[in-house]
Design a protein that fits this description.
Rossmann fold; alpha/beta; about 290 residues; single chain; 6-phosphogluconate dehydrogenase C-terminal fold; globular; 12 helices; six-stranded parallel beta sheet
């Protein structure tokens, strides 16, 4: 593949929160045209009305024609399917990226799919988003200041990798490179486990009659369970494609919960105090560590 110097046409496959926000951000850049693809006619109409895309299509192969960069912004279980539908229209030397929240399985499937293709695939995960879903939630600054993890494999074209670096950096994101398997271990701890913990907390408190306890839920409850508002179907796919790493984190949480339960049950409040103090210290250490990222 010859290295792309300037990207002036981008195709976005999937126009939800991530794809819609990408379109809004790209269309603020002079000379960049955005071609969007969505199955629903209503989504395509809204994408044009809100300025997410210059043109819209219901056919992925048509959407990507002439694009130097294609970004697949669908749920993880649909990424390979949508990319396969794009291949007949991809230009030689173009780059295809995704925004999936799990990477090892996606990268394996995409590497096999793009073997012999005229285009190159680069796995990407912008750690950005919202508990809100859909095109209505899109915003142009979603990626600015966020961390985009690029997950090359042994088959990733180095020139395509540089294109992906520049593409996300051009949107104001911070970029780092991590192997797909390491990405999944990290995100199981920092994203997938917190989502499941929030869901379990909401379900546990929600076992009580809402009319009895709802008014007593303060900001701590709502802050802690905010991410449980995420799309269940999307999160089902994420957990399914990262089961082993998520299971390891769930077992660690289960171990800590068992220790806390035993301490409360026996009245060992010194252990409770120590756990709370250690948790606060570890949270502060994690927060400080974010300052060391690019």
């Amino acid at each position: 593949m010859s290295e792309i110097i300037e990207i002036n046409k981008v195709a976005i496959i999937g126009l939800g929160l991530m794809g819609g926000s990408l379109g809004l951000a790209l269309r603020r850049r002079p000379g960049v045209r955005v071609r969007g693809c969505a199955r629903r006619a209503e989504t395509r109409r809204l994408a044009l009305e809100t300025g997410v895309a210059d043109e819209v299509f219901d056919n992925p192969a048509e959407a990507v024609r002439g694009a130097q960069m294609t970004v697949v912004c669908t749920p993880v279980n649909l990424i390979a399917e949508m990319a396969a539908a794009c291949i007949p229209g991809l230009a030689p030397g173009s780059v295809v990226a995704d925004v999936g929240s799990s990477k090892a399985e996606v990268v394996r499937r995409m590497d096999a799919l793009f073997a012999g293709s005229p285009a190159d695939f680069v796995g990407c995960h912008p750690i950005a988003g919202s508990e809100r879903q859909g095109l209505d939630a899109a915003r142009a600054d979603l990626y600015r200041g966020s961390l985009v993890v690029i997950t090359p494999s042994a088959l990733t074209n180095p020139a395509a990798l540089r294109v992906a670096d520049d593409f996300w950096a051009g949107l104001g994101a911070r970029v780092c490179r991590v192997a797909p398997e390491e990405h999944d271990r990290l995100l199981a701890a920092t994203s997938h486990l917190p989502h499941l913990a929030a869901a379990l907390l909401a379900a546990t408190v929600g076992r009580h009659a809402p009319e009895r306890v709802g008014a007593f839920c303060g900001s701590g409850f709502w802050d802690t369970t905010r991410v449980a508002e995420g799309d269940p179907a999307m999160w089902h796919d994420i957990i399914q494609t990262n089961r082993a790493a998520v299971l390891e984190e769930l077992r660690a949480l289960q171990c800590n919960l068992a220790g806390l339960t035993a301490a409360v049950e026996t009245g060992d409040m010194e252990t409770v105090r120590r756990l709370l103090a250690e948790a606060r210290a570890k949270r502060r250490a994690l927060e400080s560590a974010t300052k060391g990222l690019p």
